[in-house]
Amino acid sequence: MSFNGKLRDRVGRGDKSLSSDGSFDATFTVNLLPGSGNRTVTKLQLRRSDNGGIWNTTVDNYWVLGAAASLDAALYNNSANAGVNFAVSEGGSFNLFASDGTGSTYFPPGSALI
């Protein structure tokens, strides 16, 4: 997974906020390495290693994590429950979108994400 910067506004600040909120999101590219085989993604979670934030694709108290085939493709997330269910081919990639705070950042330089 690589951090691309704040490139798009795809998700909002909330559990099922699957639309833009006026602030650019932290954008990541996830690559499925050659030799790892094809995969089906049914759940995603992104968290700061210092417990500074959690984003995921389940309905709970954490902010939604958007997923799409590319920066501008439709989100894979289901609008009813924020869930995902999509295939990724060996060697393929997809993008993640995590909303950031207002007036502060959940993604300061040097942050470790897991």
Please provide a written account of the structure.
The chain is mainly beta and 114 residues long. Helices cover 0% and strands 33% of the residues. The chain has strands spanning 2-8, 25-31, 39-41, 45-47, 54-56, 63-68, 86-88, 93-98. The strands form 2 sheets. Strands 1-2-8-6-5-4 form a 6-stranded mixed β-sheet, with no helix packed on it. It has a two-stranded antiparallel ribbon with strand order 3-7.
Structural category is mainly beta
Biggest β-sheet: strands ordered side by side in the sheet? 1-2-8-6-5-4
Number of helices: 0
Largest sheet: 6 strands, mixed
Task: For the structure shown, list the relevant keywords.
six-stranded mixed sheet; mainly beta; 114 residues
Briefly say what this structure is.
By secondary structure, this protein is an all-beta fold.
Q: Layout of SSEs?
A:
Blueprint: E1 2-8, E2 25-31, E3 39-41, E4 45-47, E5 54-56, E6 63-68, E7 86-88, E8 93-98
Parallel strand pairs: 5-6
Antiparallel strand pairs: 1-2, 2-8, 3-7, 4-5, 6-8
